[in-house]
Amino acid sequence: MASNIIAWGSGEDGQLGIGTNEDKEWVCSVKALPSQHVRSVVAGSRNSLAILNDGKLFTWGWNQRGTLGHPAETKTENIPSQVKALSHAHIVQAAIGGWHCLAVDDHGKAYAWGGNEYGQCGEEPERKDDNGRPLRRDIVIPQPCAPKLSVRQVAAGGTHSVVLTREGHVWTWGQPWPPGDIKQISVPVRVQGLDNIKLIAVGAFHNLALQEDGTLWAWGNNEYGQLGTGDTQPRSQPVPVQGLSGLTVVDIAAGGWHSTALTDDGEVYGWGRGEHGRLGFGDSDKSSKMLPQRVQLLAGEDIVQVSCGGTHSVALTRDGRIFSFGRGDHGRLGYGRKVTTGQPMEVPIDIPPPQNLGDADGEAEGNWIAKLVACGGRHTLAIVEWKDDESKAESIHD
C-alpha cells in the first residue's frame, strides 16, 4: 500500500519536515521519511514526530530545548532525523507537550526528553542551586521515566505529563497549572478517582480521561469551559463532563484550550474556547462553550477522528476526507486561504500519485485518502494512502 505523510501550515521552526522553513497553505509531502512504513505522526506546538512500524522514532522542528531528542546543533531542523538514543526500543506511541516529549515502547516502558524546568520529564538526581532550590536541566537525550509503571499511553501538556497504565490507572507529574498555582512534582502521582480508563487526552493545562463504560472525566484549568462542567472553575480532581449522557463516546481530543468528543455514530461534540471558530460552530458563533455541543456542520459526515491544535481543529471522515476549521493564518487550514473560519471546509489532498503506479500513459487513476490526522500549534500532519479506482470499484461491490 503506497502511503505518504503530508504537512501544512506554519513552517517557521522546520516543523513541516520538508527541507525549508516556509509556511505552506496547501498540503505537501514529507519526502524524507520512508512513508509506507509510518505507523503514526504527532504534531506539537513547534515540533513534529513520526513512529515507524519497526518502532523507530523520527523528530523534526524546533530544538532549542532538546525537544528533538538530541543536542541542538541548530535552533531548528527541517528534515526528520531518527532519535538514536531510542533505537534499542520499539516505540509504539508518543506525545509532544509545550517543549517536552514522551514515548512508550511495546513493553510499557516510558521515556521523556526536552524541557524539564517543572519536572515534566520526570525524576532526576536532585541538584540544587546556591540558594538550595532544585536545579532542573533540559533533558536532551531521552531517558526512562515513571520506571515503576507499565504504561499504555502517554500524553503531554504545556508543562506536565500524564500516562495511562495497563491497569487503567492515570498518573501525572510536572506542573499542571501555570506557575504559582500548584507545586510542581517530578515523581509520578496517581490521579485519584479514576479506574478502568481506556484513553487520555491532554491540552495545555487541562486533562480528559475516557472510562471503559463511556464516562468522560476532566480536570485542570477551566477558564474557557474546556472541562465541560457548565462553569469556569478549575478542578484539581477529575469531575464528569456534563452533557454527554446517552451518547457512546469512542474518542477524545484536547487542544490548547478546547476539547472534543467523538461518538460511535460519527458525531463530533466540542466545548471550551471558541475564539477563531476552532469548535466548528460556524462563522456567526465563535463564543466559548462551557458544555459539550454537537458540531452540526459535520453532521452526517461520519467522523472517525478529530485532532485539536492550538487554535484550529481537523476532522477525519471514514472515507478518508479531511475537514479543517479555526484560525487561518500561516495556512494552517490547508486549502490555500489564510482566512479564519468556524465553518469546517474540506482540505484538498492534492499531491502527485505514487510514481510506480502509472499505467501506459503515465496517469495513475485513483486518489489519496487520509488515515490519521494530527494538529499542532500552527501546523497539521496527516498520513494518507493511495486508493486506486479498481480497489474503489471492488469496495463498492463488497
UniProtKB/TrEMBL annotation:
InterPro entries: RCC1-like_dom, RCC1/BLIP-II, Reg_chr_condens, Ub_ligase/GEF_domain. Coiled coil: none annotated. Keywords: Repeat. It comes from the Eukaryota. It holds the Pfam family WD40_RLD. Residues 5-382 form the RCC1-like domain. Gene3D superfamilies: Regulator of chromosome condensation 1/beta-lactamase-inhibitor protein II. RCC repeats lie at residues 3-54, 55-107, 108-167, 168-213, 214-265, 266-319, 320-386. Transmembrane segments: none annotated. One of its GO terms (cellular component) is cytoplasm. PANTHER family: REGULATOR OF CHROMOSOME CONDENSATION (PTHR22870), ULTRAVIOLET-B RECEPTOR UVR8-LIKE (PTHR22870:SF385). This is Chromosome condensation regulator RCC1 repeat protein. The gene is 25479730.
